[in-house]
């Protein structure tokens, strides 16, 4: 089973939140990063704008509605609506026979990941239906789950802060934390 670490950025800590971006990194190094153009902009507050929206970096032309998709053997990036991202993510996930998903404080991440397909029962069949959380792993290993993830992963000082709250960066940090915890 292939481990995949993932993170999402979204419009707030509330029930009606919508996805802004998602980042995934497989244990073999392949990455998937997507930015949604159809998130609920009315939910964006000053903190979300400054710490998430202002860090989005994929180009998109709203006048033409043309999405951005780039794929290499190891990296896929997409900018577009939910349906476009869903299709590209399904394709990316299909390269793995079986997938085990890991996140950090995954309550929102897993619900939002499942909602990409409209319902948890519709996620791709190769994705194991039980997600795993490094917060719980930290607690089991005697590490305070409230620790700075970058600091724990050895990515501090503040040089890493400019990337914090980009979903692909946070997925990479989650992976590094996991690897440190299981050593």
Structural commentary:
Helices cover about 30% and strands about 20% of the residues. It is of the alpha/beta class and about 180 residues long. It has one domain (about 1-180): Nucleotidyltransferase, domain 5 (2-Layer Sandwich), CATH 3.30.420. A seven-stranded mixed sheet has the order 4-5-3-2-1-6-7. A hairpin with an 8-residue loop joins strand 1 and strand 2.
What strand order characterises the main sheet? 4-5-3-2-1-6-7
Number of helices: 6
Q: What fold name goes in the CATH topology slot?
A: Nucleotidyltransferase, domain 5
Specify the CATH architecture: 2-Layer Sandwich
Output mean pLDDT: 90
Instruction: Specify the biggest β-sheet.
Output: 7 strands, mixed
Give me the secondary-structure category: alpha/beta
Number of strands: 7
State the share of residues found in helices, binned by percent: 25-40%
**Radius of gyration over all CA atoms, rounded:** 16 Å
Which runs of at least 5 residues are low in confidence (pLDDT < 50)?
Answer: none
Percent in strands: 15-25%
What is the C-level CATH assignment? Answer: Alpha Beta
Shape: globular
H/E element string?
EEEHEEHEHEHHH
